[in-house]
Write a structure and sequence with these properties.
There is one protein chain. The chain has two domains: 176 residues, no CATH class; 173 residues, no CATH class. It contains eleven helices and 14 strands. A hairpin with an 8-residue loop joins strand 5 and strand 6. By secondary structure, the protein is α+β, with helices and mostly antiparallel strands.
Length: 494
């Protein structure tokens, strides 16, 4: 049994240590935490304001713990908030651009960043740390961000031993560091987390060499504008295409009039309704493009690509010619460089084996379409899950030979895949939707899960999680997984 203190004993104990009436209040004071480091970026004012980005919107807001760095770029931030150790650290950079074009009285600030490393001291903020922070903003761990950035640097012959955050000022990174800061300074959009994540993921895909030599302002601005376009494509939405209403009078056929007994239906809202009333469409704004990427008349009989004018994405047109590599039902094995290697048995069942060519995987197909500069473009790729889903037209009534309504607007996409008959939904094409939060105790080692999107008839828009095999699967113990066609996408202006 635990000993019990009497009221008298408790009173004496309190008196001995000052009690509740004593002058010592340190026991009740909130603990403080300190994070310190140095700004090492080139060509900026080292005496910049540094903050702990508590709300992680990648800008220093009023009320966030902050401190001005000294002439050597050294800073120290103290706060009662322990999170200052784990949130991004930002250095505020004056771009010299007026924030208010009418008054010109204030400057627009950019922010270079460093990921939160749980370090009290020794933190460093520059362009290279900003790349790591960009990857973390996109959901990666710091370790994963290091691996990604190392792989990008290896393409340029740069090898960093150990963690990159411990060697941020390496001489071989000097040009990249300066170019990254220059790019951040010309970003126009306020969605800084997205823009930084895109810069991290794609600086090595720029037409200008970000690693070897300092870029001109024109080269930096051109790539920043490209990333701005990526943001537009990621955030712009079409409507559903639904322009008819369900009716309880005749539930076998939808009607064009709003139904008072069923208010709030899809067709009552959005681009669908406004564009239908002005005879400009049903929620989409498409344009046909010729082989050089030039806009054609809307009634053109032949075209090579389709521009989605709302998102800025350009979509590949397919063909009904079975001898064409762009045939709508050409089957490919999935290959995503650096992510998914193709599975041998899926490659063996690809259309290339019967056609006698070498276009067997999605990456083979991407490289082929880029090599022919389809519609004047050389940045073709598989669409993301959201990009393709945003293309679905749930109001399309044109049907294929099996009586299944098409999932894409038939006027612009007349050749759509019929799909394969052993998946959950029909009409699927490959996208980049690899998912890691799906688990099954029957999963095959080396396999992963993928979100398939149905595109025909009643399957339009339905999603099914499929197990796809990669090259790490033992082909001696397993059959094939899946093969789908592909419809590639590019970005206007790139």
């Amino acid at each position: 049994m635990k000993p019990q203190l009497t009221i008298l004993a408790i009173s004496l104990a309190l008196a001995g240590c000052g009690g509740s009436g004593g002058s010592d209040t340190s026991a009740s004071a909130a603990p403080t935490y300190t994070v310190s480091g140095t700004i090492t970026a080139q060509n900026i004012d080292l005496q910049s304001q540094v903050c702990a980005d508590i709300n992680q919107n990648y800008m220093c807001d009023s009320g966030e713990p902050s401190s001005a760095a000294n002439a050597n770029g050294e800073f120290s931030i103290t706060s009662t908030k322990k999170s200052i150790l784990s949130v991004p650290l930002l250095a505020q950079v004056d771009t010299g651009i007026a924030a208010n074009s009418t008054s010109g009285s204030a400057s627009y600030y950019a922010y270079i960043a460093a990921p939160g490393l749980q370090k009290n001291a020794g933190n460093e903020i520059n362009g290279i740390s900003s790349l790591l922070a960009g990857y973390v903003a996109d959901g990666l761990t710091v370790a994963e961000a290091n691996s990604k950035l190392k792989a990008q640097l290896a393409k340029s012959g740069i090898s960093i031993s150990g963690d990159i955050q411990d060697d941020l000022s390496a001489s071989e990174l000097a040009s990249l560091e300066q170019n990254i800061v220059s790019t951040i300074k010309v970003f126009k959009h306020s969605n800084r987390a997205f823009m930084l994540a895109q810069l991290s993921a794609k600086f090595d895909k720029s037409a200008a060499d970000y690693v070897n030599g300092v870029l001109t302002n024109e080269e930096v601005v051109a790539f920043a504008n490209f990333l701005e376009g990526e943001l537009k494509a990621a955030t712009a939405l079409n409507d559903t295409g639904v322009i008819r209403y369900f009716s309880d009078i005749d539930d076998t056929q939808d009607v064009v009039e709003p139904q008072s007994s069923f208010p709030g239906q899809d067709a009552e809202y959005g681009f669908d309704k406004t564009e239908l009333n002005t005879n400009t469409g049903n929620g989409f704004q498409f344009a046909k493009l010729d082989a050089n990427g030039q806009v054609l008349a809307d009634d053109a009989a032949q075209w090579s690509c389709v521009l989605d004018q709302r998102t800025g994405l350009i979509w590949e047109s397919k063909t009904d010619d079975e001898n064409s590599i762009q045939h709508k039902d050409r089957l490919l094995a999935l290959e995503l460089p650096g992510v998914v290697t193709p599975y041998d048995q899926d490659v063996d069942l690809a259309t290339c084996k019967t056609k006698g060519d070498q276009i067997c995987t999605t990456q083979d197909y991407v490289e082929h379409i880029n090599s022919i500069n389809l519609c004047g473009k050389s940045d073709w790729r598989l669409p993301t899950f959201h990009e393709f889903y945003n293309l679905l037209d749930f109001g399309e009534t044109e049907t294929n030979s099996d009586g299944k309504a098409y999932g894409l607007t038939y006027k612009y996409f007349p050749h759509q895949t019929a799909g394969i008959d052993y998946t959950s939904y029909i009409g699927s094409v490959w996208n980049q939707s690899i998912i890691y939060n799906q688990y099954s105790n029957t999963a095959v080692d080396g396999g992963f899960y993928y979100n398939e999107i149905g595109t025909l008839g009643g399957d339009r828009g339905y999603i099914s999680s499929l197990e796809i095999y990669s090259g790490d699967v033992d082909s001696s113990d397993n059959y094939d997984s899946y093969q789908f066609p592909a419809r590639l996408v590019s970005l206007q202006g790139k």
